[in-house]
Amino acid sequence: MNEKAWVSFCISTYRRPDLLRQQIASLLKQTFTNFMIIISDNDPQASAQPIASEFADPRVKYYHNQDNLGMVKSFNLSISRAVSDYIVMVTDDDPVENKFLEIAHELWESDPNKTIYCGFLRNGKKEGEVENIGRENFASEILDTDRTKSILWSSSVMLKSAMEEVGLMPDYGSPHLADHALIAMVGSIGGGLVKNRMYSSLTSHNTNFSKAHIDVYYSGCKGFYDKMHQFQLEKTYVKGVMPVVKKHLGVWFIGSFFILKKYYTIQRPDPDVLKEIDAFALQILELPFMKSFALKFFAKRFIFMLKKNLRLLK
Q1: Is 155 within a domain?
Q2: Which helix (H) or strand (E) holds 100?
Q3: 8 belongs to a structural domain
Q4: Taking a C-beta distance cutoff of 8 angstroms, is the pair 96, 198 a contact?
């Protein structure tokens, strides 16, 4: 490759060789080929190095962290290692459609002055419709769960300099919602083009971070709220963010709770973890900005327990 890559896929990985191998092989099938893959191996034993070495492709760049830095710091290090102007953040397990970069580059060509180009599911919009959302309304539009059904950073191309301006992926002690915060903040720097279609998806499996780290849900909830509040204070032109942030947290919290309850009740029964999940939920509901969700939460929990007792859960 003689030309500078337009974009880099930035990955943090930790001891999931099979998933990493599949992800690299899949990303190399992108129809738009001017990209790099930056792998940040968070395993001090460098377990991902043999996997990366399997690919005789100069676009695959492997870097080893001497210490386990944690997911957020490792992801941010992968960004700093990239030399392209644009970044796609991607985990080692979530698939990305082969035409994603081609579509994103077409969006960029139509208006190269935005800080984010993405494919999200937008309520009330036609499939494939493209919206030009200005910086002052980007966060409130994208984080509003009534307007946006689904967002993923692996379906987003972000300007690296804008990511650096907002401090990269926020590190508030939990990776939960840090990706949503990054998307919202980057779009609030220069606005974005949003196509009503997802180009990536989440994969559910037993080694998902969200299933194994119950202890950081509280810090994720509080950290996301505090980070977006601080951002709004710094960027006074950004409109209507905090009511939307609160709504976003309510949907995320209740959804996450019942996904975990169902998983540890049916798929992997564990009474001790179920107690831990209940404890984090009560702790989160004590946060001042989360108290308004208590009635809905307890009503849904009652229905959940009723279905459990009647063996209606599937």
Answers
A1: no
A2: helix 100-110
A3: yes
A4: no
